[in-house]
Design a protein that fits this description.
Blueprint (H helix, E strand, L loop, with lengths): L1 E7 L3 E6 L4 H10 L7 E4 L5 H12 L3 E5 L2 E5 L10 H5 L8 H8 L1 E4 L13 H9 L3 E4 L3 E4 L5 E4 L5 H13 L3 E5 L5 H12 L3 E3 L5 E5 L7 E4 L4 H14 L1 E6 L7 H9 L3 E4 L3 E6 L11 E2 L8 H11 L5 E5 L10 H6 L3 E5 L2 E5 L8 E3 L3 H13 L2 E6 L1 H4 L6 H7 L3 E6 L1
Parallel strand pairs: 2-14, 3-13, 9-10, 17-18, 21-22
Antiparallel strand pairs: 1-22, 1-23, 3-5, 4-5, 6-8, 7-8, 10-12, 11-12, 14-16, 15-16, 18-20, 19-20
Helix pairs in contact: 1-2, 1-7, 4-6, 5-6, 6-7, 8-10, 8-12, 10-12
Bound molecules: uridine-diphosphate-N-acetylglucosamine.
């Protein structure tokens, strides 16, 4: 079993360019199905979820090549309309292929994406959007969709990121005008819009609650660079806040991190943000302060994906912090692992009460999910002694070479066989 050894308690000091965003590259890879020629994507992170997405594209008949952080996809020979259960289960976001596949092939046959560590993750809004665009959706042992999307007025009951992206992709490949109301506003949706428009699509409104897609435009191939990963950035900032020292991150837009930076500022860190970098300093002689309630919310609120890493930093703050997770049912599975490191945290449903302790200590800990894994790494950087972090299959879905990133920040981290 692979594990990462982390010797904590050392001052963080370093600079890093944050890798491309998982949550941007995955829908953009699915969008490649709609392109009329080869697509070159740069700044693509090496993640197991990206490998899974490439396998789905190949299975559907696309030619795919990967060279370093550049991915080349030629979808012109794509002909398949079915994704196997194994591939659907290989990655939670496999459902994002539904919209573009249906739009391109006139039919799509999928199964439900695998069960999720964060609690139930329904896809009813994705399917309702597709029905609104005039397509048939049948659900039995799998999901079977038929028809050419003809546009429509989609009102999302929740600003779901995945449903917004699926609706955009389906609408771009169809005809007519589609309006998505109560759309998610996450920055990765802007990245998707920019990519689609680079290929000749007519999408506007991303970043606001209303997105309009004018279908019927033939897309070309093109070149696009994936935005930096704001959640990886939040995790590394959390590691610095936990351990103390200084970190400067390039490759992310600090505005995408505004709510996270505000929490660190309130906790007593110095935060400097410029267009080209974000820097955080934490004096090692002073403990962090607890902060008033952290409540996760759709963008531009506090990101649910940053909840666990920021909690890890606040586990040693002076005083109590209340965390309210409003997005997912089961997003405190990192808490029991933090407790093994000496944290004093109690949870009740969607609320967690973090009573700051003086110091965490190293322990054997297991990543319960992707961001929970990032949180444990951040905690281990601040803890006294050695932590042995397992469950790397979760971490490798979304952090490219986590141990190398920690090393670049002056941390002592190494991947070994245990
Ligand atoms: C995306 C992100 C994930 C992040 C989440 C919330 C990707 C690949 N993943 O996930 O990292 O944690 O946004 O910011 O971009 N819901 C329904 N019905 C649906 C769809 C969603 O009820 O059909 C609910 C979910 O259960 C959840 C809420 O809507 O409570 C938000 O989920 P959603 O925004 O869809 O998350 P994902 O797109 O799956």
């Amino acid at each position: 079993m692979s594990v990462v050894y982390i010797r904590g308690g050392r001052r963080i000091d370093g600079e890093l360019t944050v890798h491309g965003a998982k949550n941007s590259v995955l829908p953009i890879l699915a969008a490649c199905l709609l392109a009329g020629g080869p697509v070159t994507l740069t700044n693509c992170p090496h993640l197991t979820d990206v490998t899974a997405a490439l396998a789905i594209l190949r299975h559907l008949g696309c030619q795919v090549e990967q060279n370093g952080r550049t991915i080349w996809v030629d979808p012109t020979g794509a002909s398949g309309s079915a994704i196997s259960e194994e591939q659907m289960r290989s990655m939670r976001s496999s459902i994002i292929f539904l919209g573009p596949l249906l739009a391109r092939m006139g039919e799509a046959h999928l199964t439900y994406p695998g069960g999720c560590e964060l609690g139930p993750r329904p896809i009813d809004l994705h399917l309702a959007a597709i029905r609104t665009m005039g397509c048939e959706v049948a659900e039995d042992y799998g999901i079977h969709c038929k028809g050419k999307p003809v546009g429509g007025d989609i009102q999302l009951a929740i600003p779901s990121v995945g449903a917004t992206e699926n609706a955009m992709l389906c609408a771009v490949g169809g005809t007519g005008i589609t309006t998505i109301t109560n759309a998610a506003r996450e920055p990765e949706i802007n990245d998707l819009q920019n990519f689609l428009n680079t290929l000749g699509a007519k999408v506007r409104g991303a970043g606001s609650s209303t997105i309009t897609v004018e279908g019927g435009h033939r897309l070309t191939g093109g070149k696009f660079s994936i935005m930096g990963d704001r959640i990886v950035a939040a995790t590394l900032l959390s590691a610095c806040a936990a351990a103390g020292g200084r970190i400067r991150l390039q490759g992310v837009d600090w505005r995408h991190l505004a709510t996270v930076l505000s929490v660190f500022h309130q906790a007593g860190c110095q935060v400097m943000s410029q267009m080209e970098y974000v820097e955080l300093r934490r004096d090692r002689d002073r403990r962090l302060n607890s902060v008033p309630t952290i409540r996760t919310a759709p963008y531009p609120g506090f990101p649910t994906d940053a909840q666990a890493p920021v909690m890890a930093a606040l586990a040693t703050a002076q005083g109590c912090t209340m965390v309210v997770e409003t997005m997912f049912d089961s997003r405190y599975r990192h808490v029991s692992e933090l407790q093994r490191m000496g944290a004093d945290i109690t949870t009740e449903g969607r609320v967690a009460l973090v009573r700051g302790v003086d110091q965490l200590h190293g322990a054997r800990i297991e990543a319960p999910d992707l961001r929970g894994g990032g949180a444990l790494a951040a905690a281990a950087m601040g803890a006294e002694g050695i932590s042995v972090l397992s469950g790397l299959h979760h971490i490798d879905r979304g952090y490219e070479g986590l141990e190398h990133m920690l090393q670049a920040l002056g941390g002592c981290a190494e991947r070994r066989e245990d």
